[in-house]
Fold this sequence. Notes:
This protein has a domain at 11-72. The protein has helices spanning 58-71, 77-80, and strands spanning 25-28, 35-40, 47-51. Strand 1 (25-28) and strand 2 form a beta hairpin. By secondary structure, it is α+β, with helices and mostly antiparallel strands. Residues 78-83 have low confidence and may be disordered. It has a three-stranded antiparallel sheet, covered by helices on one side.
Amino acid sequence: MQQQPPKLEQPPIKMCPCGQFPDGLLIEMPERAKYGRAMGSCCGDWSVEFRNNYTQDPQETLTRASKAWNDAPRAPESDVFPPEPAAPPSAEPETSH
């Protein structure tokens, strides 16, 4: 019977520039590579390169990828999402009682 690898623990990750919160990171990297690429599971359009330093430990790779993702510069939320449109003025004048 083949032993299952241990389940990896995804560190918390920040919002993707697409505006969604990814459930996790998808990692592209040749085995035992010095560098890898991580992208959010939400859109696959945004990615960061991270230094893996030839580690063979999958949890360490995920930790390094998550740190690179979280440390990547982002625009403030007001630049990512347009502001909510202002409510149109009421058609009926307000009356005081």
